[in-house]
Amino acid sequence: MAAAPARILIVENDLTIAENLYAFLELKGFLPDAAYGGHAAVALLGDQHFDAMVLDIGLPGMDGYAVLQALQRRKQTIPVLMLTARSQLEDKLAAFSLGAQDYLVKPFALEELEARLRVLLGRARGASKDETLEFAGIEYDIGSASVTLYGQPLHLTHKSRAILEVFMRHPAELVSRRTLELALWADGSPSPEALRSQIHLLRKALLQRNFDGIQTVPGLGWKLVASARQP
């Protein structure tokens, strides 16, 4: 059974980064919310429950350290992943001393941020079950990154699995080029042929197991549908 979607608070004053994070985490099955300053973050944390927080340090008015201090004062615990351009050891030690559990320096890969978040959430939830996605004979265990097709193991590259995950979270729905680029590349702007090549690799791997369910919608994107060649 799929785990309940985790609520993630993104605290980031750079609107482009915040919007990209929001869209990416939503694609990955999380329930994100955003605050663009420390005071807004503390207010949201006081009114609502979140399973984890992605927190910048350089925030206007009330910085990330002050947010952590506010949580300490009211004895509120939440897994915190610091996301900041500050790479000095003293900055990291200060964040950890105030209760942060992880620290990621910009620029960063969206996939690494997701992986770190899942580790934090797994620790917080204890021995929770990993999420498994299922569609048309495909099963994808997110925790172990294992994929089976018609009950047999399917060996995919990291990016092929990332594309497949997006498709399986939106079965039979149109998935745009921009959506997939955001899931695969942190800056969302690879070479024009990069995504097409990755789609080809995934389609080839599936066709080798008699699955032809990736449909191209010219000029719009792709869909994952049930295969007409299922054995």
Automatic annotation (TrEMBL):
InterPro entries: CheY-like_superfamily, OmpR/PhoB-type_DNA-bd, Sig_transdc_resp-reg_receiver, WalR-like, WH-like_DNA-bd_sf. PROSITE patterns: OMPR_PHOB, RESPONSE_REGULATORY. The keyword DNA-binding applies. One of its GO terms (biological process) is regulation of DNA-templated transcription. The modification 4-aspartylphosphate is found at D56. Gene3D superfamilies: 3.40.50.2300, Winged helix-like DNA-binding domain superfamily/Winged helix DNA-binding domain. GO terms for molecular function: phosphorelay response regulator activity; transcription cis-regulatory region binding. Residues 7-121 form the Response regulatory domain. Keywords: DNA-binding, Phosphoprotein, Transcription, Transcription regulation, Two-component regulatory system. Residues 130-226 form the OmpR/PhoB-type domain. The keyword DNA-binding applies. One of its GO terms (cellular component) is cytosol. Residues 130-226 bind DNA. This is DNA-binding response regulator, OmpR family, contains REC and winged-helix (WHTH) domain. It comes from Pollutimonas bauzanensis.
